[in-house]
Amino acid sequence: MPKRLANASDSEQEPTWTDSEEAPSEEDSDYEQESQPKKKAKTPANKENKPPSKSAKTPTSGVKPQEKVIERLRRSLLTSINAQMVYKKSLKRSSSRVNVEIPNLTPADVEAILGPALYGRATKGPKQVAVTTGSSADLKEVLGRAPYKSLRYGAALVLAQDALKLVYSRDSGILKATAACIMDK
């Protein structure tokens, strides 16, 4: 190994070698160079480099993608309401509250979810759109069917008077659905 000369300012200067010894060269190293040419590094596959998959193509059923989103939101609303409808002893004499929120909606999405009849009946203010369903036909239009959960001995959990209050806040973009769940014998 070559020896370095010690200087007081060694930490700031590059090392100097004595004349009797040669500076280390790349040829003296133990590292073997590859004889094969280097392969190009693979770039990670991302959406920009890949062709679109078959599922990303236009649906063959003729349903527009926006309509599929609206149907998915309606199913989600129904599933969330059904999940909150749970039997309690207090349901024999009173009701239980059901609350669901769907965030990040535009006014056009809300109009599509409610349908033309309910949206036409809704009270539309500068900050919110509010409507209450009054029949099972209205619930069918919004959710596809009325929320229902069967219990033992012929009892069932349903929404009180088929009433579901839907309030959309234009400021926050949240659709809130509230209802009362009762036990029907």
Automatic annotation (TrEMBL):
Residues 1-68 are annotated as: Disordered. It comes from the Eukaryota. Residues 8-18 have a biased composition (Polar residues). Residues 19-33 have a biased composition (Acidic residues). This is Uncharacterized protein. It comes from Chlamydomonas schloesseri.
